[in-house]
Design goal:
Layout lengths: L10 E8 L5 E11 L1 H12 L11 E7 L20 E2 L1 E8 L6 E8 L9 E10 L4 E12 L2
Antiparallel strand pairs: 1-2, 2-8, 3-4, 3-7, 5-6, 7-8
């Protein structure tokens, strides 16, 4: 008898630009793509790769850039990174899938930019581990951020 299971991982970026007084100026919703490096991270959680000594570094930062080249699974960096990573907060929650009615686990990773961070025409975002592995990348319509 052969049993199989399928682990379906997906991601979605929501970028919200606020004016200084808190008013929402723009919001973007874009699905992101997981890199081969990100898929390796998940695979190592199951395989217990002896080269990793049973540890896999977790995603700890978000990076933003101005690059607009299309996603390629073998990428390991943003096309044009603006500055070093922004710390993220991670929230875990449970939900029920609306269609299948099955329980799901969700992670929400949130980063907040200060007025002086990543100013420019933002077009790409990626999540990175503490040892510089890019887990995912997404390209979106430009957001002009200023202080």
């Amino acid at each position: 008898m052969k049993l199989t299971d399928n682990l379906s991982i997906s991601g979605h970026l929501t970028a919200t630009l606020h004016h200084r007084v808190g008013k929402v100026v723009d919001t973007r919703h874009v699905s992101n793509s997981i890199t081969l490096g990100g898929r390796d991270l998940v695979m190592h959680l199951y395989n217990g790769d002896p080269n990793l000594k049973d540890t896999v570094n977790r995603v700890t930062q978000m990076r933003l850039g101005t690059g607009k080249t299309a996603f390629a699974a073998n990428q390991n960096a943003l096309a044009t990174q603006l500055e070093q990573g922004i710390s993220i907060e991670i929230y875990e929650s449970s939900a029920i899938d609306a269609q299948s009615k099955t329980p799901r686990k969700q992670l929400r990773l949130t980063a907040t930019l200060n007025e002086n961070q990543c100013n420019g025409e933002l077009q790409e975002e990626g999540l990175f581990t503490s040892d510089d592995v890019m887990y995912n990348r997404v390209v979106f319509a430009p957001i002009n951020k200023s202080d």
